[in-house]
């Protein structure tokens, strides 16, 4: 008779598959790892299926108990940074220095435009000429023109890129020497 019901109701097959996916069924006679109640529960701690329903779906005459799966715990590992590749440090430092140099050039250009719009250069020129110290006809806007400021900042940025790249690479090499003596920097990493 149960075969006739299963043949007549194809939705029961889908329910059986869903129940089998939600719980692991184990006959009562077998021992499991946990001695806690063996009713499958959802994330909200509500029963997904009762023991009687599990027995009915499994077709077993012995009581069936769902098995809980252990929740994976976060792992922690203690590691030490014992060596740094100096070439990779040099490449990364070089690229970051170039990015910093470009930011400095753009910032200097924007600052000059903003000061010019506000009229700071003209005001300083008028103050200097009113004091009588203006012997050669000082025009601050011509002395600190946009092209002059951007040229100076660009030269400064190029020197900065070279210095930072060399200094950070030397620091990476020194770290390798020191870490071979003391074992490096120890850190603990963990899963989220």
Strands, helices and their partners?
Layout: H1 2-8, H2 10-22, E1 24-27, H3 51-58, E2 64-67, E3 76-81, H4 86-118, H5 120-131, H6 140-143, H7 146-182, E4 185-190
Antiparallel strand pairs: 1-2, 3-4
Helix pairs in contact: 4-7
Describe the structure.
This protein has 192 residues and is mainly α. The chain has helices spanning 2-8, 10-22, 51-58, 86-118, 120-131, 140-143, 146-182; strands spanning 24-27, 64-67, 76-81, 185-190. It is built from seven helices and four strands. Residues 1-6 and 25-37 have low confidence and may be disordered. The radius of gyration is 38 Å and the shape is elongated. The two termini are 52 Å apart. A two-stranded antiparallel sheet has the order 1-2. Helix 4 runs antiparallel to helix 7. It folds into two domains: 2-67, no CATH class; 77-190, no CATH class.
Write a compact overview of the structure shown.
By secondary structure, this protein is mainly α. 59% of the residues lie in helices and 10% in strands.
Largest β sheet strand count, sense and barrel closure: 2 strands, antiparallel
The count of helical stretches stands at 7
> Unreliable stretches, pLDDT < 50, 5 or more residues?
1-6, 25-37
Structural class: mainly alpha
Report the radius of gyration as a whole number of Å: 38 Å
């Amino acid at each position: 008779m149960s075969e006739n019901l299963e043949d007549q109701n194809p939705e029961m097959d889908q329910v059986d598959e869903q129940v089998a996916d939600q719980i692991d069924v184990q006959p009562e006679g077998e021992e499991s790892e946990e001695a806690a109640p063996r009713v499958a529960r959802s994330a909200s701690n509500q029963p997904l299926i009762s023991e009687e329903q599990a027995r009915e779906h499994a077709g077993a005459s012995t009581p069936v108990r769902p098995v809980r799966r252990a929740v994976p715990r976060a792992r922690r590992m203690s590691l030490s940074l014992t060596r740094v590749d100096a070439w990779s440090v040099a490449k990364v430092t070089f690229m970051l220095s170039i990015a910093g140099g470009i930011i400095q050039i753009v910032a200097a250009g924007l600052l000059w435009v903003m000061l010019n719009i506000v009229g700071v250069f003209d005001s300083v020129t008028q103050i200097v000429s009113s004091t009588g110290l203006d012997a050669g006809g000082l025009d601050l806007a011509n002395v600190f023109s946009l092209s002059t400021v951007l040229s100076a900042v660009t030269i400064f940025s190029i020197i900065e890129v070279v210095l930072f790249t060399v200094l950070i690479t030397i620091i990476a090499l020194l770290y390798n020497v020191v870490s071979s003596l003391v074992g490096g920097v120890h850190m603990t990493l963990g899963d989220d």
